[in-house]
Amino acid sequence: MLTTINKNQILFAGDPHGCFNNLVSAVLKYRPAAVVMLGDYNLECSLEQYLQAIIEETKIYWIPGNHDFDSRAEYEYLFHSALSYNNLHLKVMDVGGVRIAGLGGIFAGRIWRPGDFPRWEDKKHWLKSQPSNVKKIPLHIDNAIWHHEFEWMKRNFSLSTGNYLKVVLQYIL
Fold first, then answer.
1. Predicted TM-score (pTM) of this structure
2. Are residues 95 and 112 in the same domain?
3. What is the DSSP letter of 15?
């Protein structure tokens, strides 16, 4: 899905699931100032390899989706790519003249969902509640949307972004 705002300044693209041809074609045709990709990349190589044709054409930002933690390789192709510096997760950035807040991952019921009471204070609390043989938080659990991160984002970014983030957070809640 491709969506633009502000007279083609920003192109939003979600869920490519390994197929970036439409995104590349749209960038070459419309020449947006920036692209914000919205998760579920299903990468088999580093993100910049898929986007090589447009890296010099536009600024590329991204937010991880729920499928970007399906395997360690997919995670590393995204989070360790040459474009890792433009990860918007838990950040607010000016993108093409628009302040954009990123909240990536997935609301996992076993961790927390908006409207539910959080089961754990934070990730350390979760890890302490596991059997003694569990020494590390699994990738899909670590990258779920946690209550403490969500609350931190609300506290720290709602004032800096005006009403836009407040509307998004109210919609989620």
1. 0.83
2. no
3. -
State whether 18 and 84 are in the same domain. yes
DSSP per-residue string spanning 85-146: GGB-BTEEEEETTEEEEE--S---TTT--TTSPPS-SSHHHHHHTS-TT--S--HHHHTS--
35-39, 90-94, 133-137: which range is least confident on average? 90-94
What total of structural domains would you count in the chain? 2
The three-state secondary structure class of 75 is helix
Looking at residue 7, its pLDDT comes to 55
Rounded-to-integer distance, Cα 32 and Cα 144, Å? 31
How far apart CA 47 and CA 59 sit, in angstroms, is 14
Q: Which of 7-11, 24-28, 111-115 has the lowest mean pLDDT?
A: 7-11
CA–CA separation, 9 vs 59, rounded Å? 11
